[in-house]
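Lab notebook, bench 4. The sequencing result for the construct came back, and we need a structural model before the next group meeting so we can plan mutations. Quick request posted to the team channel:

Model the 3D structure of this chain.
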Amino acid sequence: MTPTRQRLLGLLADGSLHSGAKLAAELGISRTAVWKEVAELRSRGIGIASEDRRGYRLERSVELIDERRIRQAALDSGGSLPADLEVLFEVDSTNEFLYAAAAPAPGRPRLVIAELQRAGRGRRGRSWLAPFGSGLTFSIGWTFVDQPADLAALSLAMGVQVVRGLQALGLRAVELKWPNDVVVGPRKLGGLLTQLRLEAGGPAYVVVGLGLNIDLPRTTREAVAATDASPPCDLRELSGGAAPGRNRTAASVATAMLAGLEEFSHSGFAPFAAAWRELDSLADEPVRIVVGERSVEGVARGADPGGALRVEIDGHVERFFSAEVSVRRPLAARGNA
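Done. Here's the predicted structure in token form:
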């Protein structure tokens, strides 16, 4: 993304109509060049409307991701963010960006936030749809000096911290669906993706990514609903139409997750277990488990200290791990879940 293109987007972000002549003057380029830059932004899926002889405007206003505003929001709430915080305008995947990078030193995490993510991934290789300005996508790179024994439960601990970050913004009714979905009832608000890279006999490097819906367009809602068993929801809906800004949300949730990573590095999952049980949306609910070709039904009985899902099946409890299972409501009880 060129500096000129980013500046153009910043001018259009308010959603107001801007004449081609005024944009050209602001950017120091010709009106034809403005037209070309608008075409490039449109090719990236950014909705820009044009009105003949009047100018251009975004189809709706957008609060652009801004490092300064994120840091200030964190300070205002008494939190802190790492020195290595990077805002990327466009990237395939924040998780893949950090996973391919050198592991940061212990105690020096990296935080990467994307304005536009082209190939975001959810669990089990699914796509994560996040149209421009509609959500929040970021990843944290963290190095554990020693691999925690219960590292498989990290995604559960991070889910707890995401909810705590949202609660700090006054958002309630948010729960967790094992192993890494952030939900409101049967609807999905966000999702976590954790990737691990182990050094032989050395530290463990993890990348924890979060995709969070803030204000999804109707077309995206329909596309997600057509491919996912859980219909989507967003912060705008959850907050009654007045969702907290993207920068403030990023600051609150990232701060909470970073604090959680620090605590997990010292104490593992134990400090998060009670909170996770309170937020467990599947607790004592009938569930359908699919592992490869095997499909069974039972009752969810929470997560064990290692992060495995405990399911009571025909009077005995089996343990399932995130890498080998998907969880669905039984066909008779699923409804919209």
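The first strand starts at residue 48 and ends at 51.
Will bring this to the meeting.
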